[in-house]
Write a structure and sequence with these properties.
By secondary structure, the chain is α/β, with parallel strands linked by helices. The protein has one domain: Vaccinia Virus protein VP39 (Rossmann fold, 3-Layer(aba) Sandwich). Helices cover 35% and strands 22% of the residues. The protein has ten helices and eight strands. An eight-stranded mixed beta sheet has the order 1-4-3-2-5-6-8-7, sandwiched between helices.
Length: 223
């Protein structure tokens, strides 16, 4: 089903321009677009120099806004390709007065265009689309194609923290991490059972947990 375009979307996105970078997609080929560097100046964006963490696929922003409130000594980049969804995250961050979050409206393939090399210490992948059909495997955010791309901006020793409700995607991701030379540091096959007070329950996580589905978590380190 096609998503209904939100009222005054362009106007609302423009009102968030101080915390939002909208991708330049004049080059329709995303891989070619990523080669034309327009690195964000983090010190200018955040007006301070702190470690940078990245969420790819931030949705409506519940996770990143809560994390940014908890972790004031970190700067956060949140990425979402669907502007219709991203606007809710941007407006939530502005309402909360968060100064340590900046959003990018782009697909994951374009991230090397905007993120300086070796600039990110953690990548969060929360309930990325598992794309179960075999023909879509290369579009999964833990496919080796993406894991190699992340090495451009993820520091050595940096981590990818992934959560998913899809067991097949979880197993696929484990294989991909190892295939690409990442070290799998932590694995949990039932996050809810941990009762971890530090765990931020996203919209998707609550819905899937309420359905009785297990939540899988993987922490992989770039060597």
């Amino acid at each position: 089903m096609r998503m209904h375009r939100k009222s005054r979307l362009d106007e609302r996105l423009a009102a968030c321009a101080d915390i939002l970078t909208v991708a330049d997609l004049s080059e329709k080929n995303m891989q070619k677009a990523a080669l034309v560097k327009q690195n964000l100046d983090f010190s200018a964006l955040f007006e301070r120099v702190n470690p940078v963490r990245l969420e790819i696929g931030c949705g409506k922003g519940k996770f990143i806004c809560e994390l940014a409130q908890r972790e004031r000594d970190f700067n956060f980049i949140a990425v979402e390709k669907i502007g219709n969804v991203l606007i809710e995250a941007c407006e939530a961050a502005k309402q909360l007065g968060l100064k340590n979050v900046h959003f990018i409206n782009c697909a994951a393939e374009v991230l090397p265009k905007y993120l300086p090399d070796d600039s990110v210490e953690v990548i969060y992948l929360n309930f990325s689309n598992p794309l179960p059909k075999l023909g879509y495997a290369k579009q999964r955010l833990t496919h080796p194609k993406f894991l190699e791309e992340y090495k451009q901006f993820l520091k050595r020793g940096g981590k990818i923290i992934q959560k998913t409700d899809d067991k097949d995607f979880y197993l696929f991701s484990l294989q991909s991490y190892r295939e690409c030379g990442y070290a799998v540091k932590e694995v949990c096959e039932d996050v809810s059972a941990l009762n971890d007070p530090e765990n931020i329950v996203t919209e998707h996580e609550k819905r899937f947990s309420d359905m009785g589905k297990k939540i899988y978590r993987v922490v992989a380190e770039r060597l």
